[in-house]
């Protein structure tokens, strides 16, 4: 009996030793060739409590919850939201009017005003749209503001932020076959929201979607072009133009889509009414 056990444990030890040797050889092979480090097995990541996200196949609810986490981090550490309830509610009303006529009406949307004088607007993912109070002050009327909001909804509808995140994660070698760690995804999302311009192609697509959305709701389509032209003519280049490249070409593309006969028909062109809505913005 004792003999048997001793023999058994010797066998185990030997197997363990062989295991170690073969692992060392495998590691040597991996280290010797310029291959990426082996991905951490998914089981191990699960044990560590890390939630993985599949960027190429993200469900709506995953995207919304990721957007919410990105929003939390953005508003906690990067952006100050504008505290005026009436102004925020006004922007939200315009947004909620656009959503049902957008290409992606089936997720919840949150529209927020950023307390910043720079003229800018951006969207993350999962329904989170931001406009600065500087942009609101620069717009001449509600239709111009709505054109920007519609454009940002267009980015969300086309899932541009998800695609940008996927590209960024791949470039940086952060995603494994199993997916991307959720906390890393949130950090990338925050960085993209603040620093990374969209591609020309994404801009054109968001413009097209925004324009259609604007028209469906009944706003005058000319407002979208008018606002871009206004930004272009400003003495200091607004941030919005650096985060939204190719303005000249975008204006040209939009003008081809807008029928001159009905360009100004629609609502939202009343400047005085708009100014009174945003009069509390300092
Ligand atoms: Zn854009």
UniProtKB/TrEMBL annotation:
It comes from Drouetiella hepatica Uher 2000/2452. Its EC number is 3.4.24.-. It is an enzyme of class 3 (hydrolase). This is M48 family metalloprotease. Residues 88-257 form the Peptidase M48 domain. Keywords: Hydrolase, Metal-binding, Metalloprotease, Protease, Zinc. One of its GO terms (biological process) is proteolysis involved in protein catabolic process. One of its GO terms (molecular function) is metal ion binding. Its cofactor is Zn(2+). InterPro entries: Mito/Outer_Membr_Metalloprot, Peptidase_M48. Binds 1 zinc ion per subunit. GO terms for cellular component: membrane. Belongs to the peptidase M48 family.
